[in-house]
C-alpha cells in the first residue's frame, strides 16, 4: 500500500463516522502548492469554501503552501460558515496528519468561532 492509498483509507473511515453522525463537516484538502477548505452538509451540499487560490488570499499571503496561508484560510472559512448560519462542524482532515498546515487551519477556525 502506498502513501496515497493509506491516506485515502484513513479518510474513508473518518467520513463514514461523520456520515453516521449526520453532521456538517469541515473538509480540508492540501496539495504541495495550496490548501482548500469546504463546509459540506450531511447530504453533500457545499455551503461555503475557501482556498489559497482565491485572489484576496494570494495578495495577502506570501505563498499558498505555508502555515500562515493556512491560518488565513481557517479564518475565512469560519467567517463564511458563520454567515451561512453554521456554528458547529465535524473536522474532516481527509486522512492528513493533524500538524503543520492542517493544524494551523483548524486552530484558526476555532479561534474565529467555529466549534468542532
Walk me through this protein's architecture.
With 116 residues, the protein is of the alpha+beta class. The protein has a single domain, classed as Nucleotidyltransferase, domain 5, CATH 3.30.420.100. The chain is built from 4 helices and 4 strands; from the N terminus they run αβββααβα. It has a 4-stranded mixed β-sheet. The N and C termini lie far apart (31 Å).
| CATH uppermost class | Alpha Beta
The number of helical segments is: 4
Any low-confidence stretches, pLDDT <50, length ≥5? none
Which fold name is given in CATH as the topology?
A: Nucleotidyltransferase, domain 5
Shape: globular
| Helix-strand pattern | HEEEHHEH
Instruction: Domain count, please report it.
Output: 1
Q: Termini separation (Å)?
A: 31 Å
Q: Give helix % range.
A: 40-55%
Class per helix and strand makeup: alpha+beta
Strand content: 15-25%
Mean pLDDT: 93
Radius of gyration: 14 Å
| Neighbour order of strands in the largest sheet | 3-2-1-4
Strand segment count: 4
Query: Based on the structure given, which CATH architecture is correct?
Result: 2-Layer Sandwich
Task: Give the biggest beta sheet.
Answer: 4 strands, mixed
What's the gist of this structure?
This protein has 116 residues and is of the alpha+beta class.
Set down the secondary structure blueprint.
Layout: H1 3-21, E1 25-30, E2 35-40, E3 46-51, H2 55-60, H3 67-83, E4 90-92, H4 101-111
Helix pairs in contact: 3-4
Key structural traits:
globular, 46% helix, 4 helices, Nucleotidyltransferase, domain 5, single chain, four-stranded mixed sheet, 116 residues, alpha+beta
Amino acid at each position: 500500500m502506498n502513501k496515497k492509498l493509506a491516506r485515502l483509507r484513513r479518510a474513508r473511515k473518518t467520513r463514514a463516522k461523520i456520515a453516521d453522525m449526520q453532521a456538517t463537516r469541515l473538509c480540508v484538502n492540501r496539495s504541495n502548492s495550496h490548501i482548500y477548505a469546504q463546509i459540506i452538509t450531511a447530504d453533500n451540499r457545499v455551503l461555503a469554501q475557501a482556498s489559497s487560490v482565491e485572489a484576496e488570499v494570494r495578495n495577502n499571503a506570501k505563498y499558498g503552501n505555508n502555515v500562515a496561508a493556512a491560518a488565513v484560510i481557517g479564518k475565512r472559512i469560519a467567517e463564511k460558515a458563520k454567515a451561512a448560519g453554521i456554528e458547529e462542524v465535524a473536522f474532516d482532515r481527509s486522512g492528513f496528519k493533524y500538524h503543520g498546515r492542517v493544524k494551523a487551519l483548524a486552530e484558526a477556525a476555532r479561534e474565529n468561532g467555529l466549534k468542532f
